[in-house]
Design goal:
The chain contains 3 helices and no strands. It is mainly α and 42 residues long. It has one domain.
């Protein structure tokens, strides 16, 4: 959990998000990831 906090605090998570949103295949990748979450047992 500490690593996640550090990543957010340093701006690394924002950089990853901005980079991902710039890809032309962002929507398809998001849909695939959401489908996997919907179909998983949490």
């Amino acid at each position: 959990m500490e690593d996640l906090y550090d990543s957010v605090a340093s701006g690394e998570e924002a950089r990853i998000t901005i980079e991902a949103n710039q890809k032309s295949t962002y929507r398809e990748g998001l849909e695939k990831e959401l489908d996997e979450l919907r179909n998983s047992e949490l």
